[in-house]
Amino acid sequence: MNRALKITGIVLLSLFVVLLFFSQTIYSFNTPTVTAALPANGKLDKKETATGLTDWSKARDIYVPQAGVVGAVFVKEGDTVEAGTHIAMMSFDTGTVTDQIAALEVSREKSMLSIETSQASIERLNQQISDLNGDKYTADDVSDYAVLQAQTKITSGQTALDEALSNAEAKQADADAASINLANDAGKKLEDARKQLADAQKQRDDTKALFDVGGVSQQDLETAQKAVDTAQRGVESAQTGVEDAQRSIEDAQRAAVTAQRSVETAQQNLRNYQLDLENQQNLAAKARETNDKNVTDQEKSRRRQIADWQYQVISAQKDIESKQLDIKNTDLQTESLHRQLKEYENAVYIDAPETGALLTLALQPDQTVNKGQTAATMAVGGTYTVTCRISLENNFVAVGDSCKLSNADHEFAAAVSKITLTDTGKEVEIYTDSPDISAGETFDVSFEKESAKSAVLVPNGAVNQDSDGYFVYTIKKRKGMMGDEYYAAKTPVYIGDSDDRNTILTSGMTFFEPIALLSDKPFSEGDTVRVKNEGDFFAS
Questions:
Q1: Which of 53, 84, 193, 527 lies in disulfide reach of 238, CB 3.0 to 4.6 Å?
Q2: How far apart are CA 536 and CA 540, in angstroms?
């Protein structure tokens, strides 16, 4: 009996030991194993690397000094030129300017002829006034005066008709010349401008095709688009010129119509004067028969005639003054055209104003250009801008910071000169005058900055977040079924800035509390954990 009891006790004890061993093994297998770390006092070391592209810092436009036609182009885009280098040679259309000068001289001669005609009319009218002032009328003279008055009107009417005809011919000639010269000139300029636009659009499309396959840079594509925009403005300017020419033609045609109406009015006045002469002759015949004319009426008529002639004298004098102003304006235009011819002789070439590289060239042989039009754009100054993009979250790069630029051929430091906020990030510009680099080079741009003050730092992987905010799991010790054990306690914290490794804790814990950094299994607040490196924090 005792023996059986002993055997039973031994079996039960053995079974208890086995169960205890397996329960400890199962417990250890299911418990998460964490690696702990202590908060440290230190500074953040922020870093970011971006890719930058080099371009010229300063550009300068070169303008066409005188309207004309491009005779030859001596350079191409991308060339480096010295100050004074010939970029292109102008082929000035001297024939057109010479024709304009000749037309102005003809106009001046017409104005001089009109002045001479008006001066002759003034002399004639003054003589008629003098003669009429010396006449003494009697009853017998009444009929003769009336006839004389009617004849004088016919003479005046004929003179007015001759002047109107001469003026109408001149205005019609001006209208015809304007229709031919202005329309042809403006039309040719519009046609040339449209051709330039078509060429620029083709060049832009070719550049776009190359850009899509990586054959050219974004700068080349933008340059081609600028050439299209410039050519488009040229078309709009030429179209405005066509509209201005059409308005000038319409004005000249209206002036011709008005002059023709003046001719018709003068013709009608002359017919009326002729009818009046016939009537006065009939009256004179009757007057001679009756010899009963009122001398007082004659005197009134004489005074009215003198007043009318005096008015005509004043009008002729005003016409002379107007024609003199026309001559002065014509002389100014002629002087301007002569000056253009002289300036052309001194400005045959379009030259580079200083040393630099040609970024764009908007000239080609046989191209018609206007004064002030952009001929080329060149990079000057020998300085470069390296442009790159950094993330919107980057808050440590500032203007004036030093950064490192490197590629397979170069490595140097430069300062940040400008930061621009965009929709997709921050655009950083870095100016450099390094003589060894060139436009179009690509660089790796490295930014690095250490925080100014020390703070409590924890590894980024130890910081968690839920609906209540940020927290860390601190490792604490407690009594368990198997003796002392470790568990995870959720500790709320407030965080500050961070870099790619650590985060600043502004409050919530001290340097002496170990925190869970890594774990081989998920766990929650209060869960029991095994600490892989417990000897670093807890005594055995």
A1: 193
A2: 10
Angle of helix 142-212 versus helix 295-346 axis, rounded to 10: 30
> Does 3.40.50.300 match the CATH number of domain 94-339?
no
**Dihedrals φ, ψ of 72, to 5°?**
-155, 150
Q: Output DSSP code: residue 356.
A: E
Relative to beta strand 80-81, strand 356-361 is antiparallel
Give tens-digit pLDDT for 377-428.
888 777 888 999 998 888 889 898 999 999 998 899 999 989 999 888 899 9
Tokens 């070719």 belong to which residue? 206
What digits encode the pLDDT tens for the residues 439-451? 888 999 999 888 8
Per DSSP, 291 falls in state -
> Cβ of 157: how many Cβ atoms within 10 Å?
20
Q: Once rounded to an integer, what is the mean pLDDT over residues 78-90? A: 85
Exposure string of 2-37, with b = 16+ CB inside 10 Å and e = fewer, is eeeeeeeeeeeeeeeeeeeeeeeeeeeeebbebebb
Q: 45 near 499, Cβ under 8 Å? A: yes
pTM: 0.39
**Dihedral of the CA atoms 239, 242, 244, 247 (nearest 10)?**
-130
Is 517:462 a contact under the CB 8 Å cutoff?
yes
- 362: pLDDT strictly greater than 80: yes
Residue 512 has pLDDT above 90, yes or no: no
- Percentages helix, strand, coil for the chain (3-state, rounded to 5) are 50, 30, 20
For the chain, domain boundaries: 1-30, 94-339
Mean pLDDT for the stretch of residues 91-99:
72
Rounded Cα distance, 371 and 240, in Å:
16
By the 10 Å C-beta count (0-12 exposed, 13-18 middle, 19+ buried), 39 is classed as buried
The residue assigned the tokens 């810092």 is 57
For residue range 325-353, list pLDDT tens digits in order. Answer: 999 999 999 988 888 777 666 556 888 88
Contact 88, 375 (CB under 8 A): yes
Max Cα–Cα distance, the chain, nearest Å? 197
- Tell me phi and psi for residue 115, to 5 degrees: -65, -45
Q: Look up residue 162 and give its two tokens.
A: 């001759």
